[in-house]
Amino acid sequence: MKKYIYSIIALLMVTWCSAQMFVSQAEYFWDTDPGAGNGTPVSATDGSFSSTFEQLTKTGVATPGNGLHKLCIRIKDNTGVWGPVFTNIINVQQTLPSTIMAIALAEYFWDTDPGTGNGTPVLAADGNFNGTYEQLTRTGIALPSAGLHVFNIRIKDNTGVWGPVFRNVIDVQTTTPSVCWKSISAGNTHSLGIKTDGTLWAWGANDEGQLGDGTNTARIVPTQIGTATNWKKIVTGAQYTIGLKANGTLWAWGYNSVGQLGNGTTVDRNVPTQIGTAADWTDIASGVEHTFAIKANGTLWGWGNNGNGQLGDGTTVNKTVPTQIGTSTNWQSVTGGNSFSLGIRTNGTLWAWGLNNYGQLGDGTTVSKAIPVQIGTATGWTNVSAGYNHSVAKNANGSLYTWGANGEGQLGDGTNTNRSTPAAVFDQVQSIDAGWYHTVGITTYGNIFTCGDNNFGQFGNNTTNTSNWISVGNDNDYKMVSAGALHTLIINNNDILKAAGNNDSGQIGDGTTVQKNIFTALACPVSNLSTDEISTIADHLKVYPNPVHDNLTISFDKNISSVTIYNMVGQQVLTKAINANKTTIDLSSLSSGVYLVKVNSGSEIKTLKVIKK
After folding, report:
1. Is 85 part of any domain?
2. Which residues contact 226 (CB under 8 A, 6 or more apart)?
3. How confident is the model at residue 80 (pLDDT cuts 50, 70, 90)?
4. How many other CB atoms are found less than 10 A from the CB of residue 18?
5. Is the Cβ–Cβ distance between 42 and 70 less than 8 Å?
6. Is the CB of residue 166 less than 8 Å from the CB of residue 12?
């Protein structure tokens, strides 16, 4: 009769050091220790040791004779250090056990054992303890004081028996995480980000004023836009930018050839300019040359290019001001691509409209639509993103669906064949985004996944190899990603921004114009100065004459407390205390050039650009 053995192995390594540690090797032996590295190898269930948490598997375990024996497990980390031996007493028998053992509960504790069942619960990664092998997970672990501590894990099986304690010595270090970036948006050849302090920053191409710094000069490092600290969300079109502030106001700047800025004109703007006076906007989205916004009442509004019905108002006429799309009041989110659009309603249904030559609408045809058309009957859609000619979406179960153009493998289904209906290609997805010809996202474990065009290194995997199947990176500390035309931005759990891909206009933001094939971290920028936004609400600040030769006059409807002048590299060149609504500043000592004038009224600060003759 064959011998059988049923055991439960749950291994956990944890570190709070600056470097990421993970399991690199595992082995087992019976009773007598043959020495580290001399046991029988144990495999990782997923085929690769590359994570802090690993589920182990081993088939064909050779058992000793009948009776009680010690099954010993030992693991090694990626620094080459073997950990302690985990042991379990096994009663080897010739008969088959009547039931299969499964993990029912897990807990952890530091240093002192509080007794079985009294530790802090640890969860199963899949949300349910029901297997012999389980991957464990726990977030928000409370740390003891700095120094060496013993971290303990204990599990209980489905018969109610608690197993031995698995221990690991942890060097707890007190570190201050970097708090910098809150959100990002990658455009065609420019990038923008909002810091955790609510300030707005931009870098990359600026030929149409899409950075919003009052110039048309490209920036190769993040440059602060204005002085506002209440930016909520930012989105980028091909050569323009749309911003939403926390007060519900809407702003736009950059290229405006077809009215995509929504200000009633087709005139470009190189500083943020408010769209109308409404203050009830809650979300925004941009396509290549068309724009959407959602109001607090759930209505959808669009403007810009409409040559293929991408606004969804039933026409193909461009709009230069926000125009309501239909009468529905349950729009949750929307996204735009190259002349087509996708949206999700609060009931979880998916909708599409506009150009459909590659099947990017997902309705099973290649016929364009000028009004939103529901895609299928499913109601579990939670996220959707439009690339240049392809579409990606995620449902509530974490499954990734793709459809549309697939010439670069951007659908990730292992082919280069276009698809006109959504097809599931990956699961365990947390967030998604579509670049012009590539698809990126983050798994529920924090890894980045990619597919499609990688000719400019936009995957950040140190290659330029294009892939038509989903590839998952090793790092698992990411939480936000944005795909541009040919570059990718990503934020990790420490709010650090990294970028990879095309950099010919400085859109990576690392101070160069050199292509990056790996994700390159950007230093958290410190405040610098740029010009103010232009509000549609009357602004009574006047600075004249401009250009100025000697005396600059400044007047405001508020009391001015001080005026400070900076050169264009941010150096202070003059300051003056004021206690009046009007003042004159003598600039005769300054050399010719462009200067920034910072006017402080106590309740608000405005910065404007002045040319000195």
Report:
1. yes
2. 200, 212, 271, 272, 530, 531, 532, 533, 607
3. confident
4. 7
5. no
6. yes
164-168, 322-326, 393-397: least confidently modelled range: 164-168
Residue 16's identity, in one-letter code, is W
pLDDT digits (tens, 9 = 90+) for 163-172: 888 887 777 7
The verdict on residue 203 lying in a domain is: no
- CA 214 to mean position of chain CA atoms: 28
- The closest of 603, 565, 570 to 583, measured between CA atoms, is 565
How many angstroms separate the CA atoms of 432 and 327, rounded?
Answer: 28
Block residue for tokens 């499913």 = 378
Gap between the Cα atoms of 158 and 8, Å rounded: 11
Q: With the CA atoms of 305, 308, 310 and 312 taken in that order, what torsion angle do they form, in degrees rounded to the nearest 10?
A: 110
Instruction: List pLDDT tens digits, range 350-380.
Output: 999 999 999 999 999 999 999 999 999 999 9
For 496-515, write each residue's pLDDT tens digit.
Answer: 999 999 999 999 999 999 99
3 state SS for 497-512: EEEEECCCCCCCCCCC
Q: Which residues pair with 179 in a beta bridge?
A: none
The Cα–Cα gap between 270 and 289 comes to 17
Angle at 574 between CA 570 and CA 579, to 5 degrees: 120
- Which tokens go with 351? 């909708």
User: In sequence order, which residues have a C-beta less than 8 Å from that of residue 146 and are 6 or more positions away?
Assistant: 172, 173, 174
The 10 Å Cβ neighbour count of residue 231 is 25
Provide the domain limits for residue 599: 542-612
- Assign residue 555 the CATH number of its domain: 2.60.40.3080
Last residue of a domain, one of 122, 140, 172: 172
Structure tokens given for 598: 């910072």
d(C-alpha 583, C-alpha 561), whole Å: 10
Helix (H, G, I), strand (E, B) or coil at 137: strand
Report how many domains make up the chain: 2
Return the SS3 of 464.
coil
Chosen domain end from 132, 153, 172: 172
Q: In the 8-state DSSP scheme, what is residue 407?
A: T
- Does the pLDDT of residue 95 top 80, yes or no? no
Most confident of 66-80, 455-469, 532-546, 590-604: 455-469
Query: Other CB atoms closer than 10 Å to residue 72's CB: what's the count?
Result: 18
Residue 355 lies in a domain: no
Closest of 109, 130, 111 to residue 119, by C-alpha:
109
- Tokens found for residue 38: 């001399």
Token pair belonging to 238: 């091909």
- Contact between 497 and 490 under an 8 Å Cβ cutoff? The reply is yes
**Dihedral angle, C-alpha 3, 4, 7, 13, nearest 10 °:** 70
Position 409 in a domain: no
